Amino acid sequence: MLDLAEIDLEIFDETEILPIIITTLDQALDSFNKMRDAEGGHILMDMLDRNQNIADLLAFVENKGRLNVQQEFDRQLENVKKLVAQDKIDQDRLNMEIALIADRVDITEECVRMHSHINLFETTLRQEDESGKKLNFILQEMLREANTMNSKTSDIEVSHKVIKIKEEIEKLREQAQNIE
């Protein structure tokens, strides 16, 4: 059988072919690196946009969350007024209702921490060193804050915005998997 792909390497002079191979390999690596840089730039812009989306959604959640605290306070106050009107003031019950207002619906701390995570995420994303694992950790913390906000709110609009925040975090997590 005739082997058409067989090449007699002895007919080539190493000094002539080696520079051609090296030049071709350098061009291929340069093209590959340019493609990676371009892809990295697109991923960076996408991640920065998503991080900004989270910040924008968080601004809404903060504003609406403050209103939610007041609404919850008013609701609890009505409960207390009903107890007073019935001459059934139970100090333990009153303390419990007040504690519910303060503890259950106030998401201020979570919002403050989320802002910190958003800033740290952007700073880490812009660093030149390897940051994939650190970004994943920050995203995990962001998700934790979002989950806490969602569990504390009784406002449906806030809940929907927090769900959108969680969706953005998940998309960022997927992108962070591509970062070395």
Please explain how this structure is put together.
It is built from five helices and no strands. The chain has 180 residues and is mainly alpha-helical. It has one domain (46-176). The protein starts with 13 loop residues before the first helix and ends with a helix. The model has no long low-confidence stretch (mean pLDDT 85).
Summarize it.
By secondary structure, the protein is an all-alpha fold. The chain is 81% helix and 0% strand.
Q: Main traits of this protein?
A:
180 residues; mainly alpha
Topology:
Elements: H1 14-85, H2 91-104, H3 108-125, H4 132-152, H5 156-176
Mean pLDDT: 85
Give the helices and strands as they follow along the chain: HHHHH
* Shape by Cα distribution: rod-shaped
Q: Radius of gyration, Cα only, in angstroms? A: 29 Å
| Count of alpha and pi helical runs | 5
Q: Termini distance?
A: 49 Å
Largest sheet: none
- Sheet-strand content, in percent, reads under 5%
| Percent in helix | over 70%
Number of strand elements: 0
Number of domains: 1
